[in-house]
Specification:
mainly beta; 13-stranded antiparallel sheet; 5% helix; 41% strand
Length: 207
């Protein structure tokens, strides 16, 4: 860019513009939303679309450590929607995410981790009392992700395979003894093989 005035909207005819404001609190339409610990951090953003009178605002609030404590999105035609985060003070992991806490459209995510801070389980609830399991994660003894099971009743499982270097080489890979790739696809919705190096995988099996 050789133009010192770039991006001068008058010269370059800017269309969609995203404004980012630091340090200074905004004026959210929800008076109960308090913005805290904004110093040297993003306070709010605005997405201004060309030839549109609607602007999307997002406001942020932080904890002293710098993690986002809550954000408020003001969407045209929808109104302000709040998302709040609950962290573990020692590890910094997200323990819970509350969407519209206390409102009829409330949705809560709850996360569980193992001793190595790896995600083990994700649960959701609309009231904080009855929880449904959305996903469970299993790991190989040496660390990498081995399997993901989706849904309360394990409606989908995904197995992960790696090379000796630790590179991902396949998901739901066909195993020896299976009749054909077609039969595998009936059992596994999307078998995937990556031919990273000749000899490690068989590139003749379609992705």
């Amino acid at each position: 860019m050789e133009e010192l005035t770039f991006p001068d909207c008058g010269t370059f005819g800017c269309g969609d513009v995203t404004l980012t404001v630091y340090d200074r609190a905004g004026l959210p339409r929800d008076p109960t939303f308090s913005q805290e610990y904004l110093r040297s951090r993003v306070s709010w953003t605005a997405m201004v679309e060309k030839n549109s009178t609607d602007t999307i605002f997002t406001y942020y609030s932080y904890i002293p450590h710098g993690n986002v404590k809550a954000l408020l999105q003001d969407l045209p035609g929808v109104g302000p929607k709040r998302t709040e985060y609950v962290y573990d003070l020692v590890s910094g992991n997200v323990n819970q995410v509350h969407y519209q806490k206390g409102y009829p459209d409330q949705l809560i995510h709850r996360y569980r981790y193992d001793a190595d801070n790896r995600l083990e389980e994700v649960q959701t609830s609309t009231d904080g009392l009855v929880w449904n399991r959305d996903a469970a994660y299993y790991y190989y003894p040496h660390g990498p992700l081995a399997r993901v099971e989706l849904g309360e009743y394990n409606v989908q499982g995904m197995d992960y395979y790696y090379t000796l270097q630790g590179w991902l080489k396949g998901i739901n890979m066909p195993m020896e003894g299976m009749v054909s790739v077609d039969s595998v696809q009936e059992l596994m919705p999307f078998p995937l093989r990556l031919g990273i190096t000749k000899g490690i995988t068989n590139p003749s099996i379609p992705v």
